[in-house]
Protein backbone atom coordinates (compact mmCIF):
# COMPACT_ATOMS: atom_id res chain seq x y z
CA UNK A 1 0.00 0.00 0.00
CA UNK A 2 1.56 3.34 -1.06
CA UNK A 3 2.69 5.26 2.02
CA UNK A 4 1.41 2.81 4.64
CA UNK A 5 3.66 0.10 6.06
CA UNK A 6 1.58 -2.44 7.97
CA UNK A 7 -1.52 -1.87 10.05
CA UNK A 8 -1.31 -1.48 13.87
CA UNK A 9 -4.60 -3.32 14.32
CA UNK A 10 -4.02 -4.97 17.74
CA UNK A 11 -2.84 -1.62 19.10
CA UNK A 12 -5.96 0.14 17.83
CA UNK A 13 -8.17 -2.65 19.17
CA UNK A 14 -6.60 -2.30 22.64
CA UNK A 15 -6.89 1.49 22.37
CA UNK A 16 -10.62 0.99 21.74
CA UNK A 17 -10.93 -1.14 24.89
CA UNK A 18 -8.95 1.38 26.94
CA UNK A 19 -10.95 4.37 25.72
CA UNK A 20 -14.17 2.58 26.63
CA UNK A 21 -12.92 1.77 30.12
CA UNK A 22 -11.28 5.15 30.73
CA UNK A 23 -13.68 7.53 28.97
CA UNK A 24 -16.91 6.23 27.48
CA UNK A 25 -17.95 4.29 30.57
CA UNK A 26 -17.79 7.48 32.63
CA UNK A 27 -19.57 9.99 30.42
CA UNK A 28 -23.02 11.26 31.25
CA UNK A 29 -24.94 10.45 28.04
CA UNK A 30 -27.23 13.49 28.26
CA UNK A 31 -24.36 15.91 28.84
CA UNK A 32 -21.41 14.64 26.84
CA UNK A 33 -23.29 12.09 24.66
CA UNK A 34 -23.97 14.37 21.66
CA UNK A 35 -20.37 15.66 21.60
CA UNK A 36 -18.96 12.12 21.79
CA UNK A 37 -21.35 10.89 19.06
CA UNK A 38 -20.28 13.80 16.86
CA UNK A 39 -16.57 13.10 17.52
CA UNK A 40 -17.03 9.42 16.64
CA UNK A 41 -18.84 10.38 13.46
CA UNK A 42 -16.26 12.83 12.17
CA UNK A 43 -13.16 10.89 13.32
CA UNK A 44 -12.99 8.67 10.19
CA UNK A 45 -13.09 11.75 7.92
CA UNK A 46 -10.19 13.27 9.84
CA UNK A 47 -8.15 10.07 9.58
CA UNK A 48 -8.89 9.84 5.87
CA UNK A 49 -8.03 13.47 5.14
CA UNK A 50 -4.82 13.22 7.18
CA UNK A 51 -3.66 10.09 5.35
CA UNK A 52 -4.67 11.30 1.93
CA UNK A 53 -3.48 14.87 2.02
CA UNK A 54 -0.74 15.05 4.68
CA UNK A 55 1.07 11.90 3.55
CA UNK A 56 1.75 10.34 0.19
CA UNK A 57 -1.03 7.73 0.59
CA UNK A 58 -3.22 7.18 -2.47
CA UNK A 59 -7.00 7.51 -2.44
CA UNK A 60 -7.80 3.78 -2.32
CA UNK A 61 -5.15 3.02 0.33
CA UNK A 62 -6.25 5.93 2.50
CA UNK A 63 -9.89 4.79 2.34
CA UNK A 64 -8.95 1.17 3.08
CA UNK A 65 -6.64 2.09 5.93
CA UNK A 66 -9.25 4.42 7.46
CA UNK A 67 -11.86 1.67 7.36
CA UNK A 68 -9.57 -0.99 8.84
CA UNK A 69 -7.98 1.24 11.50
CA UNK A 70 -11.19 2.85 12.61
CA UNK A 71 -12.98 -0.50 12.43
CA UNK A 72 -10.38 -2.07 14.74
CA UNK A 73 -10.69 0.78 17.20
CA UNK A 74 -14.52 0.65 17.21
CA UNK A 75 -14.38 -3.16 17.49
CA UNK A 76 -12.28 -2.71 20.67
CA UNK A 77 -14.80 -0.21 22.06
CA UNK A 78 -17.75 -2.49 21.24
CA UNK A 79 -16.19 -5.70 22.60
CA UNK A 80 -15.30 -3.94 25.84
CA UNK A 81 -18.77 -2.36 26.08
CA UNK A 82 -20.65 -5.59 25.43
CA UNK A 83 -18.43 -7.60 27.81
CA UNK A 84 -18.86 -4.96 30.52
CA UNK A 85 -22.65 -4.80 30.11
CA UNK A 86 -22.93 -8.59 30.19
CA UNK A 87 -20.46 -9.61 32.90
CA UNK A 88 -19.68 -6.60 35.09
CA UNK A 89 -22.57 -4.11 34.94
CA UNK A 90 -24.29 -3.30 38.24
CA UNK A 91 -27.64 -4.44 36.84
CA UNK A 92 -26.34 -7.74 35.42
CA UNK A 93 -28.23 -9.82 37.99
CA UNK A 94 -31.64 -8.47 36.97
CA UNK A 95 -33.72 -10.50 34.51
CA UNK A 96 -34.58 -9.28 31.04
CA UNK A 97 -33.75 -9.97 27.44
CA UNK A 98 -30.02 -10.48 26.73
CA UNK A 99 -30.17 -8.01 23.83
CA UNK A 100 -31.82 -5.36 26.03
CA UNK A 101 -28.92 -5.63 28.47
CA UNK A 102 -26.49 -5.01 25.59
CA UNK A 103 -28.13 -2.06 23.90
CA UNK A 104 -31.00 0.36 24.51
CA UNK A 105 -31.74 0.20 20.77
CA UNK A 106 -33.31 -3.20 21.37
CA UNK A 107 -36.17 -1.41 23.18
CA UNK A 108 -36.40 1.26 20.49
CA UNK A 109 -36.54 -1.41 17.78
CA UNK A 110 -39.29 -3.37 19.53
CA UNK A 111 -41.53 -0.34 20.03
CA UNK A 112 -40.91 1.38 16.69
CA UNK A 113 -43.96 0.07 14.82
CA UNK A 114 -46.70 0.76 17.34
CA UNK A 115 -44.91 3.39 19.50
CA UNK A 116 -46.13 1.41 22.48
CA UNK A 117 -43.35 1.77 25.05
CA UNK A 118 -45.75 1.14 27.97
CA UNK A 119 -47.45 -1.97 26.61
CA UNK A 120 -44.10 -3.44 25.59
CA UNK A 121 -42.85 -2.89 29.17
CA UNK A 122 -46.09 -4.43 30.44
CA UNK A 123 -45.41 -7.59 28.38
CA UNK A 124 -41.83 -7.76 29.69
CA UNK A 125 -43.09 -7.63 33.29
CA UNK A 126 -45.51 -10.47 32.57
CA UNK A 127 -42.59 -12.50 31.23
CA UNK A 128 -39.81 -11.62 33.69
CA UNK A 129 -41.52 -10.43 36.90
CA UNK A 130 -41.52 -7.16 38.85
CA UNK A 131 -37.88 -6.17 38.23
CA UNK A 132 -36.83 -6.10 34.57
CA UNK A 133 -33.65 -4.73 33.01
CA UNK A 134 -35.01 -2.99 29.90
CA UNK A 135 -31.75 -1.40 28.84
CA UNK A 136 -28.07 -1.59 29.76
CA UNK A 137 -28.54 0.90 32.62
CA UNK A 138 -32.35 1.04 32.79
CA UNK A 139 -34.44 -0.89 35.26
CA UNK A 140 -38.24 -1.02 35.21
CA UNK A 141 -39.90 -1.88 38.53
CA UNK A 142 -43.56 -2.87 38.59
CA UNK A 143 -43.93 -3.55 42.29
CA UNK A 144 -46.49 -1.07 43.75
CA UNK A 145 -44.44 -0.99 46.95
CA UNK A 146 -41.73 1.05 45.26
CA UNK A 147 -43.84 3.99 44.06
CA UNK A 148 -43.25 6.06 47.18
CA UNK A 149 -39.61 5.11 47.42
CA UNK A 150 -38.80 6.10 43.84
CA UNK A 151 -41.10 9.12 43.43
CA UNK A 152 -41.74 10.24 47.02
CA UNK A 153 -40.50 13.59 48.29
CA UNK A 154 -36.86 12.60 48.85
CA UNK A 155 -35.16 14.93 46.40
CA UNK A 156 -33.27 18.00 47.58
CA UNK A 157 -34.34 20.11 44.60
CA UNK A 158 -36.86 22.86 45.22
CA UNK A 159 -39.58 24.23 42.97
CA UNK A 160 -39.06 27.44 41.06
CA UNK A 161 -41.19 30.59 41.56
CA UNK A 162 -43.55 30.10 38.66
CA UNK A 163 -45.27 27.31 40.59
CA UNK A 164 -47.25 30.28 42.04
CA UNK A 165 -49.29 30.11 38.84
CA UNK A 166 -50.83 26.88 40.19
CA UNK A 167 -51.81 27.93 43.69
CA UNK A 168 -55.49 27.60 44.63
CA UNK A 169 -56.22 31.28 44.13
CA UNK A 170 -54.46 31.45 40.76
CA UNK A 171 -56.40 28.37 39.62
CA UNK A 172 -59.71 29.95 40.60
CA UNK A 173 -58.85 32.93 38.43
CA UNK A 174 -58.71 30.55 35.44
CA UNK A 175 -62.33 29.45 36.09
CA UNK A 176 -63.89 31.79 33.53
CA UNK A 177 -61.41 30.76 30.86
CA UNK A 178 -62.09 27.07 31.39
CA UNK A 179 -65.86 27.73 31.36
CA UNK A 180 -65.53 29.78 28.16
CA UNK A 181 -63.63 27.04 26.29
CA UNK A 182 -65.93 24.31 27.63
CA UNK A 183 -68.89 26.32 26.35
CA UNK A 184 -67.24 26.67 22.96
CA UNK A 185 -66.72 22.89 22.80
CA UNK A 186 -70.36 22.28 23.71
CA UNK A 187 -71.55 24.79 21.06
CA UNK A 188 -69.50 23.04 18.38
CA UNK A 189 -70.82 19.62 19.41
CA UNK A 190 -74.36 21.01 19.44
CA UNK A 191 -73.91 22.05 15.80
CA UNK A 192 -72.93 18.46 14.99
CA UNK A 193 -75.73 16.72 16.89
CA UNK A 194 -76.79 13.47 15.24
CA UNK A 195 -73.68 13.25 13.03
CA UNK A 196 -70.46 11.31 13.51
CA UNK A 197 -67.93 13.31 15.50
CA UNK A 198 -64.33 12.32 16.21
CA UNK A 199 -64.40 13.03 19.95
CA UNK A 200 -60.64 12.62 20.32
CA UNK A 201 -60.09 15.43 17.81
CA UNK A 202 -62.52 17.88 19.45
CA UNK A 203 -61.33 17.14 22.98
CA UNK A 204 -57.79 17.74 21.73
CA UNK A 205 -58.85 21.12 20.29
CA UNK A 206 -60.32 22.02 23.68
CA UNK A 207 -57.27 20.98 25.70
CA UNK A 208 -54.79 22.75 23.41
CA UNK A 209 -56.90 25.93 23.29
CA UNK A 210 -57.05 26.04 27.12
CA UNK A 211 -53.29 25.58 27.45
CA UNK A 212 -52.54 28.04 24.63
CA UNK A 213 -54.75 30.61 26.36
CA UNK A 214 -53.06 30.03 29.72
CA UNK A 215 -49.47 29.75 28.50
CA UNK A 216 -49.38 32.30 25.67
CA UNK A 217 -52.45 34.45 26.37
CA UNK A 218 -54.10 33.29 23.12
CA UNK A 219 -55.77 30.13 21.91
CA UNK A 220 -54.84 28.18 18.82
CA UNK A 221 -58.40 28.89 17.53
CA UNK A 222 -58.81 25.16 17.07
CA UNK A 223 -62.27 25.08 18.69
CA UNK A 224 -63.34 28.17 16.82
CA UNK A 225 -62.26 26.95 13.38
CA UNK A 226 -62.84 23.26 14.05
CA UNK A 227 -59.41 22.32 12.79
CA UNK A 228 -55.95 21.72 14.12
CA UNK A 229 -53.30 24.43 14.21
CA UNK A 230 -49.70 24.11 13.03
CA UNK A 231 -48.49 24.46 16.63
CA UNK A 232 -50.60 21.50 17.73
CA UNK A 233 -49.41 19.46 14.76
CA UNK A 234 -45.82 20.38 15.49
CA UNK A 235 -46.12 19.38 19.13
CA UNK A 236 -47.58 16.06 18.05
CA UNK A 237 -44.86 15.58 15.41
CA UNK A 238 -42.30 16.45 18.09
CA UNK A 239 -43.81 13.79 20.32
CA UNK A 240 -43.09 11.03 17.83
CA UNK A 241 -39.28 11.02 18.24
CA UNK A 242 -39.84 11.28 22.00
CA UNK A 243 -42.06 8.19 21.86
CA UNK A 244 -39.52 6.37 19.76
CA UNK A 245 -36.29 7.43 21.45
CA UNK A 246 -37.59 8.21 24.96
CA UNK A 247 -35.37 5.53 26.47
CA UNK A 248 -32.30 6.92 24.66
CA UNK A 249 -32.61 10.61 25.60
CA UNK A 250 -29.01 11.33 24.55
CA UNK A 251 -30.03 10.46 20.99
CA UNK A 252 -32.83 13.03 21.17
CA UNK A 253 -30.24 15.56 22.32
CA UNK A 254 -28.23 14.68 19.21
CA UNK A 255 -31.32 15.18 17.00
CA UNK A 256 -31.92 18.60 18.56
CA UNK A 257 -28.34 19.62 17.81
CA UNK A 258 -28.28 18.28 14.26
CA UNK A 259 -27.62 21.17 11.88
CA UNK A 260 -30.81 20.38 9.93
CA UNK A 261 -33.19 23.09 8.72
CA UNK A 262 -36.07 23.55 11.23
CA UNK A 263 -38.58 22.53 8.55
CA UNK A 264 -37.38 18.92 8.74
CA UNK A 265 -36.38 18.81 12.41
CA UNK A 266 -39.66 18.77 14.39
CA UNK A 267 -38.04 19.48 17.73
CA UNK A 268 -36.19 22.56 16.50
CA UNK A 269 -39.35 23.66 14.64
CA UNK A 270 -41.27 23.44 17.89
CA UNK A 271 -38.67 25.44 19.78
CA UNK A 272 -38.70 28.20 17.17
CA UNK A 273 -42.49 28.41 17.09
CA UNK A 274 -42.70 28.65 20.89
CA UNK A 275 -40.12 31.44 20.86
CA UNK A 276 -42.29 33.47 18.46
CA UNK A 277 -45.42 32.96 20.55
CA UNK A 278 -43.66 33.97 23.77
CA UNK A 279 -42.30 37.11 22.12
CA UNK A 280 -45.84 37.95 20.95
CA UNK A 281 -47.25 37.31 24.43
CA UNK A 282 -44.65 39.58 26.04
CA UNK A 283 -45.71 42.42 23.78
CA UNK A 284 -49.40 41.99 24.69
CA UNK A 285 -51.09 42.64 28.01
CA UNK A 286 -54.07 40.30 28.46
CA UNK A 287 -57.03 41.57 30.49
CA UNK A 288 -57.17 38.37 32.57
CA UNK A 289 -54.15 36.76 34.28
CA UNK A 290 -52.60 33.78 32.57
CA UNK A 291 -49.77 31.49 33.61
CA UNK A 292 -47.26 33.66 31.77
CA UNK A 293 -48.32 36.62 33.96
CA UNK A 294 -47.00 34.68 36.96
CA UNK A 295 -43.84 33.60 35.16
CA UNK A 296 -43.11 37.19 34.15
CA UNK A 297 -43.96 38.52 37.61
CA UNK A 298 -41.47 36.08 39.16
CA UNK A 299 -38.78 38.32 37.67
CA UNK A 300 -35.71 37.50 35.65
CA UNK A 301 -33.64 34.44 36.47
CA UNK A 302 -30.68 35.24 34.24
CA UNK A 303 -28.80 38.43 33.46
CA UNK A 304 -28.20 37.14 29.97
CA UNK A 305 -31.29 38.03 27.94
CA UNK A 306 -30.90 35.06 25.55
CA UNK A 307 -30.82 32.62 28.48
CA UNK A 308 -33.91 34.35 29.92
CA UNK A 309 -35.78 34.10 26.60
CA UNK A 310 -34.85 30.47 26.32
CA UNK A 311 -36.13 29.76 29.84
CA UNK A 312 -39.44 31.51 29.16
CA UNK A 313 -39.85 29.72 25.87
CA UNK A 314 -39.16 26.30 27.31
CA UNK A 315 -41.48 26.97 30.28
CA UNK A 316 -44.33 27.94 27.97
CA UNK A 317 -43.69 25.04 25.61
CA UNK A 318 -43.49 22.63 28.53
CA UNK A 319 -46.89 23.82 29.74
CA UNK A 320 -48.56 23.22 26.40
CA UNK A 321 -46.85 19.87 25.86
CA UNK A 322 -47.44 18.67 29.43
CA UNK A 323 -50.96 20.03 29.84
CA UNK A 324 -52.74 19.32 26.55
CA UNK A 325 -52.56 15.73 25.34
CA UNK A 326 -52.47 14.47 28.95
CA UNK A 327 -55.80 16.07 29.83
CA UNK A 328 -57.23 15.28 26.38
CA UNK A 329 -56.31 11.60 26.76
CA UNK A 330 -58.10 11.23 30.09
CA UNK A 331 -61.17 13.10 28.86
CA UNK A 332 -61.38 11.01 25.71
CA UNK A 333 -61.19 7.81 27.74
CA UNK A 334 -63.90 9.03 30.15
CA UNK A 335 -66.18 9.81 27.20
CA UNK A 336 -65.43 6.38 25.76
CA UNK A 337 -66.70 4.78 28.99
CA UNK A 338 -69.77 7.06 28.99
CA UNK A 339 -70.58 5.99 25.41
CA UNK A 340 -70.01 2.32 26.29
CA UNK A 341 -72.28 2.32 29.32
CA UNK A 342 -75.16 4.87 29.49
CA UNK A 343 -75.70 4.21 33.23
CA UNK A 344 -72.46 6.09 33.86
CA UNK A 345 -74.00 9.31 32.52
CA UNK A 346 -77.20 8.61 34.47
CA UNK A 347 -75.22 8.31 37.71
CA UNK A 348 -73.19 11.43 36.97
CA UNK A 349 -76.38 13.40 36.28
CA UNK A 350 -77.94 12.09 39.48
CA UNK A 351 -74.99 13.31 41.52
CA UNK A 352 -75.11 16.75 39.87
CA UNK A 353 -78.87 16.97 40.54
CA UNK A 354 -78.42 15.96 44.19
CA UNK A 355 -76.04 18.89 44.55
CA UNK A 356 -78.40 21.30 42.77
CA UNK A 357 -75.98 21.71 39.90
CA UNK A 358 -77.55 22.50 36.56
CA UNK A 359 -76.21 23.31 33.14
CA UNK A 360 -75.67 26.97 33.99
CA UNK A 361 -73.45 29.20 36.12
CA UNK A 362 -73.85 26.84 39.07
CA UNK A 363 -71.12 24.65 37.52
CA UNK A 364 -67.94 26.25 38.84
CA UNK A 365 -64.49 24.98 39.77
CA UNK A 366 -65.51 25.12 43.44
CA UNK A 367 -68.97 23.54 43.11
CA UNK A 368 -67.60 20.62 41.06
CA UNK A 369 -64.48 19.99 43.13
CA UNK A 370 -65.88 17.55 45.68
CA UNK A 371 -68.38 15.40 43.82
CA UNK A 372 -67.29 11.85 44.76
CA UNK A 373 -68.66 9.99 41.73
CA UNK A 374 -67.43 12.52 39.17
CA UNK A 375 -63.95 12.36 40.71
CA UNK A 376 -64.15 8.57 40.87
CA UNK A 377 -64.92 8.33 37.14
CA UNK A 378 -61.94 10.55 36.33
CA UNK A 379 -59.65 8.61 38.67
CA UNK A 380 -60.69 5.26 37.27
CA UNK A 381 -59.93 6.49 33.71
CA UNK A 382 -56.58 7.83 34.96
CA UNK A 383 -55.85 4.48 36.61
CA UNK A 384 -56.56 2.35 33.54
CA UNK A 385 -55.21 4.82 30.96
CA UNK A 386 -52.53 6.97 32.60
CA UNK A 387 -51.50 9.71 30.16
CA UNK A 388 -47.81 9.17 31.00
CA UNK A 389 -48.10 5.37 30.89
CA UNK A 390 -44.45 4.36 30.72
CA UNK A 391 -43.54 6.20 33.91
CA UNK A 392 -40.87 8.81 34.42
CA UNK A 393 -37.16 8.29 34.88
CA UNK A 394 -35.25 8.61 38.15
CA UNK A 395 -31.59 7.99 39.05
CA UNK A 396 -30.76 5.77 42.00
CA UNK A 397 -29.12 7.71 44.86
CA UNK A 398 -25.45 7.69 45.93
CA UNK A 399 -24.61 4.47 47.73
CA UNK A 400 -27.51 2.66 46.02
CA UNK A 401 -30.79 1.70 47.65
CA UNK A 402 -32.64 -1.44 48.64
CA UNK A 403 -36.22 -1.59 47.35
CA UNK A 404 -38.68 -4.43 47.82
CA UNK A 405 -35.79 -6.73 48.80
CA UNK A 406 -33.63 -5.85 45.77
CA UNK A 407 -30.50 -3.73 45.83
CA UNK A 408 -30.31 -1.08 43.12
CA UNK A 409 -26.74 0.20 42.81
CA UNK A 410 -25.89 3.89 42.60
CA UNK A 411 -26.31 5.74 39.30
CA UNK A 412 -28.80 3.40 37.60
CA UNK A 413 -31.84 4.75 35.82
CA UNK A 414 -35.09 3.44 37.23
CA UNK A 415 -38.67 3.80 36.12
CA UNK A 416 -41.94 2.58 37.59
CA UNK A 417 -44.35 1.95 34.69
CA UNK A 418 -47.67 3.52 35.62
CA UNK A 419 -49.71 1.45 33.20
CA UNK A 420 -48.45 -1.84 34.66
CA UNK A 421 -48.48 -0.80 38.33
CA UNK A 422 -51.94 0.78 38.15
CA UNK A 423 -53.26 -2.51 36.75
CA UNK A 424 -51.40 -4.69 39.23
CA UNK A 425 -53.50 -7.30 41.02
CA UNK A 426 -51.34 -6.64 44.10
CA UNK A 427 -52.91 -3.20 44.28
CA UNK A 428 -56.39 -3.51 42.76
CA UNK A 429 -59.06 -6.20 42.66
CA UNK A 430 -60.38 -6.80 39.10
CA UNK A 431 -57.50 -4.57 38.00
CA UNK A 432 -58.43 -4.36 34.32
CA UNK A 433 -62.10 -3.47 34.88
CA UNK A 434 -63.50 0.06 34.88
CA UNK A 435 -65.21 0.28 38.29
CA UNK A 436 -65.44 3.92 39.50
CA UNK A 437 -67.13 2.71 42.71
CA UNK A 438 -63.77 1.41 43.95
CA UNK A 439 -63.03 5.08 44.74
CA UNK A 440 -66.38 5.61 46.53
CA UNK A 441 -68.63 2.87 47.87
CA UNK A 442 -66.41 -0.17 47.20
CA UNK A 443 -63.02 0.70 48.75
CA UNK A 444 -62.32 -3.01 49.28
CA UNK A 445 -61.45 -3.13 45.55
CA UNK A 446 -58.33 -1.07 46.30
CA UNK A 447 -55.56 -2.99 48.03
CA UNK A 448 -52.81 -0.41 47.83
CA UNK A 449 -53.78 3.22 47.20
CA UNK A 450 -50.11 4.18 46.73
CA UNK A 451 -50.14 2.31 43.45
CA UNK A 452 -52.27 5.10 41.94
CA UNK A 453 -49.88 7.84 40.82
CA UNK A 454 -50.94 9.18 37.40
CA UNK A 455 -49.53 12.64 38.21
CA UNK A 456 -46.39 11.14 39.76
CA UNK A 457 -45.45 12.21 43.27
CA UNK A 458 -43.19 14.40 45.27
CA UNK A 459 -41.53 17.61 44.27
CA UNK A 460 -41.16 16.53 40.65
CA UNK A 461 -44.81 15.53 40.36
CA UNK A 462 -47.23 17.26 38.02
CA UNK A 463 -47.81 20.92 38.83
CA UNK A 464 -50.92 21.07 36.64
CA UNK A 465 -52.84 18.34 38.51
CA UNK A 466 -55.56 20.59 39.92
CA UNK A 467 -55.89 22.53 36.70
CA UNK A 468 -56.34 19.23 34.85
CA UNK A 469 -59.04 18.05 37.31
CA UNK A 470 -60.81 21.41 36.97
CA UNK A 471 -60.86 21.16 33.18
CA UNK A 472 -62.02 17.56 33.21
CA UNK A 473 -64.81 18.13 35.76
CA UNK A 474 -66.03 21.12 33.77
CA UNK A 475 -66.19 19.26 30.43
CA UNK A 476 -67.63 15.98 31.74
CA UNK A 477 -70.39 17.60 33.78
CA UNK A 478 -71.49 19.87 30.93
CA UNK A 479 -71.32 17.08 28.39
CA UNK A 480 -73.53 14.68 30.34
CA UNK A 481 -76.05 17.39 31.15
CA UNK A 482 -76.23 18.49 27.55
CA UNK A 483 -76.01 15.25 25.54
CA UNK A 484 -76.64 11.54 25.30
CA UNK A 485 -73.51 9.98 23.88
CA UNK A 486 -73.22 6.80 21.81
CA UNK A 487 -70.69 5.06 19.57
CA UNK A 488 -71.06 6.01 15.90
CA UNK A 489 -71.81 3.22 13.45
CA UNK A 490 -68.81 0.91 13.08
CA UNK A 491 -67.13 2.24 16.24
CA UNK A 492 -66.51 0.06 19.28
CA UNK A 493 -63.63 1.97 20.88
CA UNK A 494 -61.07 -0.68 19.99
CA UNK A 495 -59.01 1.86 18.01
CA UNK A 496 -58.73 4.07 21.07
CA UNK A 497 -57.70 1.18 23.30
CA UNK A 498 -55.32 -0.52 20.91
CA UNK A 499 -53.89 2.14 18.60
CA UNK A 500 -53.18 4.94 21.05
CA UNK A 501 -49.44 5.62 20.97
CA UNK A 502 -47.09 6.25 23.86
CA UNK A 503 -45.18 9.38 22.90
CA UNK A 504 -44.19 10.00 26.54
CA UNK A 505 -47.71 11.42 26.85
CA UNK A 506 -50.46 9.72 24.90
CA UNK A 507 -50.97 10.10 21.16
CA UNK A 508 -54.65 9.26 21.47
CA UNK A 509 -56.30 7.37 18.59
CA UNK A 510 -59.66 8.38 17.10
CA UNK A 511 -63.07 7.77 18.69
CA UNK A 512 -66.17 8.29 16.53
CA UNK A 513 -69.24 9.20 18.55
CA UNK A 514 -72.73 10.57 18.03
CA UNK A 515 -73.97 13.26 20.42
CA UNK A 516 -77.75 13.77 20.81
CA UNK A 517 -79.25 16.70 22.64
CA UNK A 518 -81.08 15.69 25.80
CA UNK A 519 -84.66 16.71 26.30
CA UNK A 520 -84.83 18.83 29.46
C1 LIG B 1 -54.62 14.36 33.28
C2 LIG B 1 -53.74 15.30 33.14
C3 LIG B 1 -52.29 15.23 33.53
C4 LIG B 1 -51.52 14.17 33.93
C5 LIG B 1 -51.94 12.73 34.14
C6 LIG B 1 -50.18 14.67 34.16
C7 LIG B 1 -49.12 13.89 34.59
C8 LIG B 1 -47.83 14.35 34.75
C9 LIG B 1 -46.69 13.53 35.09
C10 LIG B 1 -46.73 12.03 35.32
C11 LIG B 1 -45.62 14.34 35.14
C12 LIG B 1 -44.17 13.91 35.36
C13 LIG B 1 -43.74 14.08 36.78
C14 LIG B 1 -42.46 13.33 37.02
O1 LIG B 1 -41.47 13.55 36.31
O2 LIG B 1 -42.47 12.51 37.90
C15 LIG B 1 -46.05 15.67 34.85
C16 LIG B 1 -45.24 16.78 34.82
C17 LIG B 1 -45.66 18.04 34.52
N1 LIG B 1 -46.95 18.43 34.26
FE1 LIG B 1 -48.58 17.25 34.21
N2 LIG B 1 -50.16 16.01 33.91
C18 LIG B 1 -51.43 16.39 33.52
C19 LIG B 1 -51.85 17.66 33.20
C20 LIG B 1 -51.08 18.77 33.28
C21 LIG B 1 -51.55 20.12 33.05
C22 LIG B 1 -52.99 20.55 32.72
C23 LIG B 1 -50.48 20.92 33.15
C24 LIG B 1 -50.52 22.40 32.94
C25 LIG B 1 -49.99 23.27 33.58
C26 LIG B 1 -49.32 20.10 33.48
C27 LIG B 1 -48.04 20.56 33.68
C28 LIG B 1 -46.96 19.77 34.00
C29 LIG B 1 -45.59 20.28 34.10
C30 LIG B 1 -45.16 21.72 33.86
C31 LIG B 1 -44.79 19.19 34.44
C32 LIG B 1 -43.29 19.21 34.67
C33 LIG B 1 -43.04 19.45 36.16
C34 LIG B 1 -41.57 19.52 36.50
O3 LIG B 1 -40.75 19.05 35.69
O4 LIG B 1 -41.25 20.03 37.54
N3 LIG B 1 -49.73 18.80 33.56
N4 LIG B 1 -47.41 15.66 34.62
What report would you give on this structure?
The protein has 23 helices and 11 strands. With 520 residues, the protein is an alpha+beta fold. It has 2 domains: 80 residues, no CATH class; 299 residues, Cytochrome P450 (Cytochrome p450), CATH 1.10.630.10. The strands form 4 sheets. Strands 1-2-7-4 form a 4-stranded mixed β-sheet. A 3-stranded antiparallel β-sheet has the order 3-11-8. A two-stranded antiparallel ribbon has the order 5-6. About 2% of the residues have low confidence. It binds protoporphyrin IX containing FE (HEM). Protoporphyrin IX containing FE (HEM) binds next to helix 16, helix 17 and helix 22. The site of protoporphyrin IX containing FE has 21 residues, from helix 16, helix 17 and helix 22. Keywords: Heme, Iron, Membrane, Metal-binding, Monooxygenase, Oxidoreductase, Transmembrane, Transmembrane helix. This is Cytochrome P450.
Summarize the structure.
The protein has helices at residues 9-22, 29-54, 59-88, 98-102, 105-111, 117-128, 147-151, 168-172, 175-191, 199-216, 222-225, 230-245, 249-257, 266-283, 291-297, 305-323, 325-340, 342-354, 365-368, 372-384, 418-421, 465-482, 494-499; strands spanning 131-135, 138-141, 196-198, 393-395, 401-403, 406-408, 413-415, 483-487, 501-503, 505-507, 512-517. By secondary structure, the protein is an alpha+beta fold. The chain folds into two domains: 9-88, no CATH class; 148-229 and 242-249 and 309-517, Cytochrome p450.
Amino acid sequence: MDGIKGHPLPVLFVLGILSHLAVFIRIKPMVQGPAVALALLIAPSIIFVTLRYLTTTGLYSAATATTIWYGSYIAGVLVSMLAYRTFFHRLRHYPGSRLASLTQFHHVWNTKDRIDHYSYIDKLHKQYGDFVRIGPNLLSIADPAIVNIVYGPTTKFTKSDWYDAFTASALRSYDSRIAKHTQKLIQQLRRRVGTTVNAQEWIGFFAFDVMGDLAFGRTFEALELGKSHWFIDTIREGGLPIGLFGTTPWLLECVIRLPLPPSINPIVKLMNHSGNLVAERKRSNPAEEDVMSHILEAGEFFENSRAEESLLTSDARLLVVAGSDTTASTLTHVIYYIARDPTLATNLRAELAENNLRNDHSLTITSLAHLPFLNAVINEALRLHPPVPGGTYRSSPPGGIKVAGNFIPEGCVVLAPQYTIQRSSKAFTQPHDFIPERWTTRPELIRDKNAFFPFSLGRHGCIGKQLAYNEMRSVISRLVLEFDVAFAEGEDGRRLLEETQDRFTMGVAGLDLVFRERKA
